[in-house]
Amino acid sequence: MDLGLRGRTALVFGGSKGLGRAVADALAGEGTTVALVARGREALDEAAGTMRERYGVAVHTFAADVADHAAVLAAVADAERALGGRIDILVNNTGGPPPTDPIGVEPSLWAAQFHAMVSSVIAVTDAVVPGMRARRWGRVLTIASTTVIEPNPALMLSNALRSALVGWSKTLADAVAGDGVTVNLLLPGRIATDRTDFLDATAATAQGVTADVVRAAKSAGIPLGRYGTPAEFGAVAAFLASDPASYVTGTMMRIDGGMVRSV
Predict the structure, then answer these.
(1) Residue 221: beta bridge partners?
(2) For position 109, what pLDDT does the model report?
(3) Is the sign of the CA dihedral 229, 172, 59, 31 positive or negative?
(4) Burial of 235 (C-beta count, 10 Å sphere; 0-12/13-18/19+)
(5) 195 or 41, which is more confident?
(6) CB atoms within 10 A of CB 220
(7) 160 confidence band (pLDDT: 50, 70, 90)
(8) Are 182 and 138 in contact (CB under 8 A)?
(9) Which of 23, 153, 203, 262 is the most buried (most CB within 10 A)?
């Protein structure tokens, strides 16, 4: 299937590692020109170099922390210029918050995580969507988590804050659908990334077992019997960014191997 992405442009947050890198790889593999935003310059340079060599596309990099709104919006403006004055595909992606108990989280931590995980995503999207609407084509993909459907008791901050993006994304999808812009959420389950390794290690320490024991137990609760790969996640994202997916908007797409038990 031709996804119609050759010659398109994409801005991918958190694009140097993990799920963001997986999406950037998938888009670059389809011939999309990519701009990556992440905190670490070294990881950005490595990711960009690998993509250029592997896919033969232009890859631009911008170092910024999503918690710094001024720096992030400056990176968006710089990326738009580097991409020839247009951003066709926006991939919103923020780091996950630390595991916490359900009760007693300091208000300052709530505020800081809301700033980094919610208001930053909205600010970036507000900066990019007007151009998409004017060109009458655009894709907004926001990476959330299956915890917005089935909360994880160890990830209370993530449960609550990513759920805020659900209502925002659906409302935005309705507002811009008539302009050829689709807006969708990607809900990863257990995808084999550094973040998943960290959470497994944290759980292992709390339980007094090894991370392999935790991983085996969690895999047993997934109908497919394993964690997903970044490439599998990226492929779904590339489809939602494509021309063939032009009738898919305002939805949440699970990539979880059947882990979430609700239909």
Answers:
(1) none
(2) 94
(3) positive
(4) middle
(5) 41
(6) 9
(7) very high
(8) yes
(9) 23
Considering the chain, what is the average pLDDT of its residues?
A: 96
DSSP readout, 203-248? HHHHHTS-HHHHHHHHHHTSTTSSPBPHHHHHHHHHHHTSSTTTT-
Residue 52, number of CB atoms within 10 A of its CB? 14
Contact 76, 128 (CB under 8 A): yes
The amino acid present at 105, given as its one-letter code, is V
Separation between Cα atoms, residue 240 and residue 3, nearest integer Å:
9
Mean pLDDT of 46-62: 97
- How many CA atoms lie less than 13 Å away from 84 in the CB half-sphere? 10
Q: Which two tokens stand for residue 123?
A: 């600010």
Instruction: Please give the pLDDT value at position 96.
Output: 82
pLDDT at 63 over 90: yes
Q: What pLDDT was estimated at residue 193?
A: 93
Instruction: Convert the pLDDT of each residue in 24-33 to its tens digit.
Output: 999 999 999 9
Per-residue tokens: 79? 């990326």
Backbone angles phi, psi at 61, to 5 degrees: -130, 145
